[in-house]
Design brief:
D-amino Acid Aminotransferase, Chain A, domain 1, binds pyridoxal-5'-phosphate, about 30% strand, nine-stranded mixed sheet, alpha+beta, six-stranded antiparallel sheet
């Protein structure tokens, strides 16, 4: 039986219930984070919790815990569930209040839940790459907020599922923005490129780590939107996310990226990323 964290209390999973008038349930009015756990340790927890705090400020949800209090609670949850390799999911909603679009009064407190899930590293995808399709980005223009409102992302991912692909790459007018739940990168020669961090993408924590790794290792990097043509013509394409790490993309819309092989720059970044995980969480079993 697993333990979940609900409003600061550790309770059995079966006892965690959502009120029908919770604003997360009715409006998707809330924010969330997903943190990777390796060897029972959170990877880049501070960065995730800082982004959570930034998202909460952008939508006016007051989180009453400090980052260190949240870290302690999450570490306790991981240890109660004896989680070694997996993820930690957490969300804050605006709380329970009679349905009305406007914000409730200040006495309504956010609903906070967190739980853990066993999830192995996606070793096959990391080694062999994945296929993707391109879809129009139909989402709103505050994709920088890690909001519970994921309908556009859900619809994009479903198109990938129906096309037997791993991910959908979204484009807005002529520019590639991001995946349904990942950031997208192209490589030409030695140059690595991804969409700039603005309101049209989520500034992924994995994205931020890759940028840091490029800078530390003297790799050429550009944060600038690119077109679908650039995507199709790229030497290498990969995606990044907390759960997918640095995953090579070997085909776009059924057309192989170059020869359909994982590129050298992608492999180099995978290696650097694994080193960063090991430095923070210890040696990986696989
Ligand atoms: C829309 C979107 N973009 C990018 C990402 C990657 O972010 P991160 O690296 O923080 O997981 C995610 C992760 O879920 C996402 O949902």
């Amino acid at each position: 039986m697993s333990t979940v964290l609900m409003n600061g209390e550790f309770i059995p999973r079966e006892e965690a219930k959502v009120d029908i008038e919770d604003r997360g349930y009715q409006f998707g009015d809330g924010i969330y984070e997903v943190i990777r756990v390796y060897n029972g340790k959170m990877f880049m927890a501070k960065e995730h919790l800082e982004r959570l705090s930034a998202s909460s400020e952008k939508i006016g949800i007051a989180i009453s815990y400090s980052i260190s209090e949240l870290t302690n609670l999450l570490e306790t949850l991981i240890s109660k569930n004896s989680l070694s390799t997996g993820i930690l999911y957490m969300q804050f909603t605006r709380g329970i209040s009679p349905r009305n679009h406007g914000f409730p009064t200040d006495d309504v407190t956010p609903t906070f839940i967190a739980y853990t899930k066993i999830m192995q590293r996606p070793l096959d995808n990391l080694e062999n790459g994945v296929s993707v399709i391109t879809v129009e980005d139909i989402r709103w223009s505050r994709c920088d907020i890690k909001s519970l409102n994921l309908l556009g992302n859900v619809m994009a991912k479903q198109k990938a599922v129906e096309a037997s692909c791993y991910e959908s790459i979204q484009y807005r007018e002529l520019s590639v923005t991001e995946g349904s739940s990942s950031n997208i990168w192209i490589v030409n020669g030695e140059k690595v490129q991804t969409h700039e961090a603005n309101q049209f993408i989520l500034n992924g924590i994995t994205r931020q780590k890759i940028i840091q790794l490029c800078n530390e290792n003297g790799m050429e990097l550009e944060e600038k939107a690119f077109s679908i043509e650039d995507l199709i013509d790229a030497d290498e394409v990969f995606l990044s996310s907390t759960t997918s790490e640095v995953t090579p993309i070997t085909s776009v819309n059924n057309v192989p990226v170059k020869e359909g092989k994982v590129g050298e720059v992608t492999k180099k970044l995978q290696g650097l990323f694994i080193d960063a995980i090991i430095a923070e969480c210890g040696q990986l079993a696989n």
